[in-house]
Amino acid sequence: MNKITLADVAANAAGIKKKDAEVAVNAIFAAMANELAAGGKVQIAGFGNFKMKERVERVGRNPKSHEPIVIPSAKVVNFTAGKQLKELLNK
Question: Does 91 have pLDDT greater than 90?
């Protein structure tokens, strides 16, 4: 599923125009991205939690030459599924 499909589903469920649903979906994703970029977390009850994590610098290996390489630190988004989502997935 992509953003356009998600907007179509939202438009049909809410009985609104697809263009309005696209604006709403884009606004929601922008708000989530801004909150995560500011170091906050996003909690959606029944679905899950998103938060930023710092992945530390580490040493890896080049798969071709097997020489050690330094993998730089990076910020990544971590998602933890909520209870209702876990139950739905484990049916």
Answer: no
Single pTM value for the model: 0.79
Structure-block tokens of residue 5:
């499909």
Q: Are residues 85 and 48 part of one domain?
A: yes
pLDDT of residue 47: 95
Tell me: do 81 and 49 sit in the same domain.
Answer: yes
Distance CA 32, CA 64 (A): 39
| Tokens 């589903």, residue located | 9
Boundaries of domain holding 6: 1-38
Please give the DSSP secondary-structure letter assigned to residue 73: P
The answer to whether residues 28 and 70 belong to one domain is no
Q: Which neighbouring-strand residues pair with 80?
A: 49
Instruction: Extract the tokens encoding 3.
Output: 């953003």
Closest by alpha carbon to 82, among 46, 43, 41? 46
